């Protein structure tokens, strides 16, 4: 059973995510990359993290997968917040644009995702990754499959 199913069976997507945040529990990816799920409302989700040595690649910057994971999480959970109790989703496509290199000195980064549109079978979302002063480090667009459980 997934963490969402364990903490929020029978609730719609927004209620599931709110309960997950309130529980203080973290899915494994948040633990692995040391970031947090901090805000959710209908059609919007926010994650935050500080990239550290754990996210570095061999060329001396934060691995692009760190940014992509925060952006994918923000896009996915923004869509999840719009689902009924009987729906699920999965990412079909994620397109990431890297605007500025991330380093351990980038500070707290916020990935904010928003639903652009959602239908019975497909959803479209976008997300930005910014630092505390609003500088844009990366952005993404995502196509997600919506399905019945």
TrEMBL record:
Molecular function as annotated in GO: 1,4-dihydroxy-2-naphthoyl-CoA thioesterase activity
Domain Thioesterase residue range list: 60-137
Keywords for this protein: Hydrolase
GO cellular component entries: cytosol
Domain of life, source organism: Bacteria
CDD domains, sorted: PaaI_thioesterase
Heme in keyword set: no
NCBIfam families given in the database record: unchar_dom_1 (TIGR00369)
PANTHER family: 1,4-DIHYDROXY-2-NAPHTHOYL-COA THIOESTERASE 1, BLR5584 PROTEIN
Protein name: Thioesterase
Source species: Caballeronia zhejiangensis
């Amino acid at each position: 059973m997934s963490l969402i199913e364990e903490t929020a069976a029978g609730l719609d997507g927004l209620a599931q995510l709110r309960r997950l945040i309130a529980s203080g529990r973290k899915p494994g990816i948040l633990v692995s990359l040391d970031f947090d799920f901090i805000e959710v409302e209908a059609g919007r989700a926010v994650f935050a993290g500080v990239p550290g040595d754990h996210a570095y690649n061999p060329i001396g910057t934060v691995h692009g997968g760190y940014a992509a994971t925060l952006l994918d999480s923000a896009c996915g959970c923004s869509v999840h917040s719009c689902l009924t109790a009987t729906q699920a989703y999965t990412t079909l496509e994620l397109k990431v644009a890297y605007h500025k290199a991330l380093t351990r000195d980038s500070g707290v980064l916020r990935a904010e995702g928003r639903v652009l549109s959602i239908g019975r079978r497909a959803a479209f979302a976008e997300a930005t990754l910014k630092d505390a002063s609003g500088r844009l480090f990366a952005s993404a667009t995502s196509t997600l499959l919506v399905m019945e459980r």
